Every structure is written in C-alpha cells, then in structure tokens.
Amino acid sequence: MNHTEVLTRYVTNFVDELVANGLTDAVISPGSRSTPLALTLAEHKKMKEWVIIDERSAAFFALGLAKKTKRPVVLVCTSGTATANYFPAIVEAYYSRVPLIVLTADRPHELRDVGAPQAIDQIKMYGDYVKWFHEMALPEADLHMLQYVRNKAASACYIAREGNPGVVHLNFPFREPLMVDFQYENVWGIHDRSHPTSTLPAYEGKKHLSEQQVEDVLLKLTNKEKGVIVCGPQTDPELPEAITKLAEKWQIPILADPLSQVRAGSHVSDVIIEGYDALLRNQAIRERLKPEFIIRFGAMPVSKAYSFYVKQHQHALQIVVEDHEGFREPMSNPTAFIFADAVACCEVLTASATPKSSKTWLQIWKQYNEIAKKHLNCKPDQELKEGEAVRTLLETTPEKSCIFVGNSMAVRDLDSFFWTTKKQIEVFANRGANGIDGVVSSGLGACAAGNRVTLVLGDLSFFHDMNGLHAAMHYQLPLTILLINNNGGGIFSFLSQANDKQHFEALFGTPLNIDFKHAVHMYGGQYVLARTELEVREALLESYQQAGLVVVEVKTNRETNALWHREKWQAIEQEIVGERN
C-alpha cells in the first residue's frame, strides 16, 4: 500500500467515525498541512464544510454554530500560528461549556525543533482549556490502526459532549505528499457497526437526587419562608418550564437572567421577575427583599446588582444546582451544591412537600417588578437611547427567532428591557470569558444552523470582528445586526474611570470615528441608519423579510446614555423606597 492510500484510509476512517457519532458541521481554515483533513471533510456527503479564512473568526464561528445546534462542531487548521488564533474561542468555549473538536495539522516529528518553517510546539498548546488532548500517531492503514483512528474519533465526540461540554484537541502530524485519493475501493471503511474496525456507541445516564437527598434539601428549607430562585445563563430548552412550575408551586419569585431562556416561551408566568437588576441597585431595596434562601440554576447572572444582593445577604442559605460538576460561586459565600440533572431536580422538588412561603413575599417582588418596568418602559423623547433601541428590537423580533447579544452595554440593556413574552426566542452570548472578540463570527455561526439571527452589539465589538462579515457574504447567511454606535466603550461611562477627565477618552472611551456603512457595503450587506424608534422598528421588520446581511445602525451619545440610565434607576428607587417614608 503506497503513501497516498495509507494517508487516505487513515483520514477517511477518522472522518467517517465523526459522522457516525452525529457530527454534521466542520469549520475549515485554509492551509497546506491540513490538506488531508480539509479534503476529506469536504468530500464526506454527510458533513457540511464551512471555509472561514481568518482562523480567529473561524473558531468563533464554530463556537456560535455549536451553541445553536447544541452538538460538537469540528474545527480544522494548518500548523503554526494558525493554531494559536483559535485560542480565544477555545477559552470562551471552556468557560461557556460549548463542545468543539479541534483538529490541528502538524509537521511530523522529524521536522520539529529543527528550524522547519511553520512549525511551532502544538503539544497541549491549549493547556487546561481543553478536556482532552491527544497527539495522533503517524498515518498507517492496517486493521489495528484503522480501529485506532475510529476509536480516537469516537472518544473525541464523547468527551466533548459528556458532563460539562467542552473542547477536545487532536494534533495530526502529516508527512508529504499531502494529497488524498477517494477513488480507492471502500475508501470510507466498513459501515457495519459490528465490524472489528467500528466503534460501539457510548451511553451516559443523568444524575438524580435520591429520596434521602431530597428530604435533606427540604429539611434545610424548613421554617424559611422567603426564598428566591435564580436562573443564570443556560441553554437547556427543558429547564424554563420545569423551573417555572417549581416557582409557582412554592410561590416564590424567579430572578431570570436574559440568557436563561426563561423570559420567553409558552411557560412564562408572573412569578418571573425581569426587572431585578434595576431593583437591586439600591441598598435599601435589597434589604427589603432580604431572602432566607436562594436556589440558583445556571451560571452566575449578568447583573452586577445581583452580586451586590448576594454579597449583602451572605448568611442566607444558598444552593447552586449543577448538572455535572463545577463550583461557580464567585462571591465565595457558604454554598451547598447539588450535582444532579437540573430538570429532574426541579421536577422532584415540585412533586415533593412544599416549603412554607410568606403570603406577601412574592407579591412584594411582583409589585416592585411592575414599578421597575413602568419606569424602564417610558416612551422615548426626541433623542433615541440605546436601551430604547434594544427594547424596540425585542418587541419586533419575530416568533421562533434567535438573538445573539454582545457583551458590555448590549447584554446589560438586554437584561434591562427583555420583558417576558410568549414568543419562542432563544438568546445566546459569549458570556464564558465575556470578551468582545469574535461576536460577529459567533452570531454568523448561529445563522449557519439555518434561521435568521438578530445580533445586537456595540461599535467596538463590531470593529473588533469585522473580518467575520466575510462569511455572511460568502454563504449569504441571514443575519440582522443592530449596531449601537456610541463611538467608543460606553460601559466605561458607568464606571469610576469616567471621573478621570484627563485620560478617560484616550484610554477608556476610545472613539473610533468610523463610518461603518462602507464596511457593510464592502461585504455585500444592506445598511440602514435609524434615528428614531419608529425607524428602528421599520428597519428591523424589513430586515426579517430580506436575504443575507442587514445592518441597522443607531448612533447614540455615551454620556447622555449613562445619565438616562441613572435617571431611570433613581426614579425606581424613589418610588419604592419613598412609598413607606
């Protein structure tokens, strides 16, 4: 068997096993050393390839696609610094628990550490940010080696998905020549799963609380009448209904993060408190809403005000539910952890004895929530504000849609203005490491799953990943972008750095002074500048009827925006705190 046939059978069996384990999408960054993998992934009839030239953009694209489809996506690049450009997205995937299978091509061992071009140390280069690293053997094609490559492919798929999903990294050393030939007989290997070269499926059960553990949890809640359920960022589509039923049964509020998937859907209920970020900014209100216990599902919420609430009431019983493992409690408060399937946990608690609840506790939360919504929902004046643009987006977003939101101000405005709705809306963000890099590419990756996505982000995030727009043009992906341009880092206007007038603009405000219309047109998109709430609404509605990329830009003032937000918060505080004075 010659070199080409050996290489071909080695790689085709690996890729075929990925497909056999349910993988359907591969994001490929062009390069030479990765030729065997790239060609084979493109050739397999059940694998869809996405060619993204910029490696950093490619990795974030794969991340967005994996978030939306909830299954691993293959990511392939050549050797050298191309592999390093994947690192930011791998870090994000680690913290946000997104499954990726990273396949890096490499020089063979004899070309390492000898000055060969495009050769860097790729062994365990992503450190602890991957769940598993494996250096693949040099290609061979006997029965044992074909079983080996299938075993590694199946292991990668399983490890990426099991427990808390995450990244696996396989490094492939290839010798030249690098071309493969798909004309060989039975080139994809044996499809009969009982054949010796086939791997068998892996099965994983869910963790459940025992009867005794349920009793122990309920015992901890004895004589505690003022409880709060918190749902942070999470993507399980079954949890919102389960968690809402539990809160209704126990008659306690749900503080629902905008990324919790709890604020939208047929399950929505008046026990869901959307305005808690505005409420908990005031110390007196936090004291009035003093809890006796807090049960949290999902990651820590976006809201900084919630962290103040938890810190102020650190002596309240706090329970965090994790499906598998992890200690996500950044406040370091005394915390009990439940490691069990979150949906099953809600169901068993709902079916068990109901803790005694204060008759007025839930009503107070609901009353305060209505006050917050009343002030936040005031109609705009002549100058359109960022929060009003986001509120208009949420009112306009169609049924069964997806929103991808950037970090900094965008996700916080979503937190403030995302009211509960019966519409089915999925909401995603890169809140693992909370960076502004790669957001455009991640939004486009979510689009690659097949439906139009609305991406809302600021000008710095847009600028940071304008390369990502090439995928929108190349694949005609259906993306609407609400670009909120406050000419710089608007979030810093809310922080103490804003008081340093001498250095603030240069170091934190960082105005770009860019006309983004030209960038949008360069990538074949449609551009609209919206100056009023009505224009935003009309532009968004029209975008949902269009194909490809549409960017709706809203220009705002950072200082005015910060003042507007503070006025809203002060009005809420005054009405609530002043009502008993």
Give structural notes.
The structure is a single chain. By secondary structure, the protein is an alpha/beta fold. The chain folds into three domains: 3-173, Rossmann fold, CATH 3.40.50.970; 211-373, Rossmann fold (3-Layer(aba) Sandwich); 380-568, Rossmann fold (3-Layer(aba) Sandwich), CATH 3.40.50.970. It is 39% helix and 16% strand. It is built from 22 helices and 18 strands. It has helices at 3-20, 35-43, 55-69, 81-84, 87-96, 143-161, 211-220, 239-250, 276-279, 283-288, 304-312, 342-351, 361-376, 386-396, 409-417, 439-447, 459-464, 469-475, 504-509, 516-522, 533-543, 558-577, and strands at 25-28, 48-51, 73-77, 100-106, 132-135, 167-173, 227-231, 254-256, 272-273, 293-297, 317-322, 335-339, 401-405, 425-429, 453-458, 479-485, 526-529, 549-555. The protein has a six-stranded parallel sheet with strand order 2-1-3-4-6-5, sandwiched between helices. It has a six-stranded parallel sheet with strand order 9-8-7-10-11-12, sandwiched between helices. Strands 14-13-15-16-18-17 form a six-stranded parallel sheet, sandwiched between helices. Strand 1 (25-28), helix 2 and strand 2 (48-51) form a beta-alpha-beta unit. The radius of gyration is 26 Å and the shape is globular. The N and C termini lie far apart (89 Å). The model has no long low-confidence stretch (mean pLDDT 94).
